[in-house]
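Notebook entry, structure prediction.
Reason for the run: the old model in the group folder had no record of what sequence produced it. Starting over properly, with the input documented here first.
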Amino acid sequence: MTGETVTQDLRSAAQIAAAQTSARVKELRLQADSTFTARNKAMPRPAYDAGILGPQDEHWEFRHLQSLGTEEALAWVDRSNGAYGRSPKRERSTSRATRDVLEWLLRFPGETWEERWFASGLDQAPRTGLGELSERLARPRQQISLGITSIVRARLVRPSYEWMFSSKQWNLSQGAVSFLDAAEPVETPRMRGLPQYLAAHQLVRRNAENAIARVMVRTGKRLGQLTGEDILAYSHTARTSTRHAKEHLAWELLVTLGPLAGEPATLRAAWHANVVNRRHTVETLVRRYGIPESGVRNLLIDYLEELKPSMDYGSLESLSYRLIRLFWAEVLDINPAQQNLHLAPDVAVQWRERVKTTLEGTPRNETASTFFAVRALYRDIAEWSHEQPERWAVWVAPIPLPRAESKASSRHRRQVEARMQQRTRSLTPLLPAFMRSAEDLKEKGHRLLERTVAATHLQTYTVDGVTYRRHDPPVRTKANTRARIWAEVISAEAGSSPPVPVGKRADITSVEADNFWGWAVASTLKETGVRIEELLELTQLSLRHYVAPTTNTIVPLLHIVPSKTDQERLIPMSPELVKILVEVQRRARGTGQAVPLSTRYDPNDKTFSERLPHLFARLVGPTQNVLSNHYVRKLLIGIASHAGLSDGGMPVTFTPHDFRRLFATELVGSGLPLHIVSTLLGHLNLETTRGYTAVFPEHVIQAHHAFIERRRQTRPGHELRTASSEEWQEFEQHFLLRRVALGTCHRPYATPCVHEHACIKCRFLQVDPAQAGRVEDMTANAEARLDEARKHQWLGEVKALEENLVHLRRRRNEMTGSPRPVRVTDGQA
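New structure, fully documented this time:
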């Protein structure tokens, strides 16, 4: 005996073998691609199914291939590759490469070739796996690439969509298209002969073929066996910010070809019909940040699942980002051995400091919401542990945030509110110039389109100081009938604003459309103060009217559907707003008799609406699409740039929400009670409305609030409350009594008439367009009386009548509408 202690291994033989296999696989497995770039930024991922086995269909036609031995599998791959028409030399090289890859896959556990493929890590390393495997096998990269591509084309394995999107050897070799040609030699030519295929651009055709081939590879089905669920699953899996609508043509081709016969005609319609949206599951929301499998990760998934029923999807997605990316991923980066929520003091301090800085090293603008989410996580778990101790009690831990952080958050919130009010005060004097710029752009766009339509090919003309040359690009096929009008900018006078730089061609159709929609959006936001999502959800059915029982007067109303606060409301429409929406409705209707139906995508909730006659929708390609949030912001930036707005030497832009704050400030400044303004805005809390208003500097507001608080002590406490039906009736009656012969008086609420009812001279009079004839009669009568007064030398009467005529002619000009826009259909004016 040597005196050494021998430790007996108490594991069974199966456990020892399993441990050895696990160690061997860990050593042999390829390293997964990094989820971060060299600059430590998150790597965009085109799908989230890497490392996951394909759908297990018991009727899978090629299931028998999974049990083949190496030689049988190699023979099958060689026969399959014969359909690609390679030279004998290339086939021998491909066969050797395939054998190398198959023999390497045999080193990994699994009963099928597909299980070995995923166990090897190759599916999770589409970018770096080829190079690493080439080094391990001491074979050229090109040879290994041939072997991998061959076994995929032979349907021996079904890689993930993420591998097919990211693998260079698959995409550079046109693996998807060549697979489609070899796998479906009869159906592929039929598909390429369909009218939709022939009318599409070459890039759109290639995207459709790639989509169909990927679905066939992933599902293991033939083209004629594909279903609508297969395409919808592909679209849902591949739906990220880096890939947009590349499978629409694929759906339409399959519907016409036959596999999807009976399905909706378009993919967008299928999304709605199948209640398919772009939402991720809670598990996917957590997995997307690449944190390793652990008890805390499962806890966070369970926690978010508990909150999911009471939250909208946008809030759930934001919460997952704060808890997973900004909290737990950072904690693991500080302490990789962290296994529970009990953070050491030094780890908690480092995390709080780190979360205050972005990856670029700049201070993070807002951390209060992250700290609030983390504090809520710890408190919720502590509270739930009393109800379900067996599930939550083990995770109860001290909150890693001191109370000082809560005070800092309150201070930050007050600073944000102060900055918001200061921005509103700075934008108030700039709003008139902004609206004049929007109106000017709209009129210029109309003149430019009208003049360009009248010009012929290569004809030169000048509009608003800019010289253009009409350009008609050649039409290659009948299917590509010209539907847009182009012109080249030849020169521009000083002070003019050409749509594109000199020497460039401009799409005049788009220029005119952008100018119109910029004016329509800005004007509607100014007149209503609605949120951007409420604006884009307006439909033809949102235009309502109410007949007052006392005066039998029609009051136009705008119906706002429930949105952010689920507050449904009706907004009285001014005559200006009625004119704007009538013109928007005429534009959306185009040459048809009714506003076309369109589906709106909610970027926050990741859902599609019903097909409705949306007002703020335009024709994009062959479909009617609702304006996007990004497009609206781009339009507002363009208007501000054209106006040349600046504040303190810095350029100023307007955002959609700025109009909401300006609208609230104007109403409060005109004397409208705060609780009525709150109802018009759809706020549930008066403090929210108060934060939107910014009439005076902060110290004046604070002094006024103190004054109000002192006065409230002597007033009944029920005055600041939600408006009652009687108050609404009194409010409505107040304005109904302002109806006069020529229209409506729009003086501020609760103010007297300062012109002693000489309405024609008052700037608060809004003339009703229906009274245009009355204005003409009054003008003609005043002119006749003026001639009589001059004849009789009644100089006092002459002066009074001349002043009346100035106001009457001004009213007549106010009622003159802008010219109707020029429409283009199939390239014809």
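Summary: The chain has a mean pLDDT of 80.
The old model has been moved to the deprecated folder.
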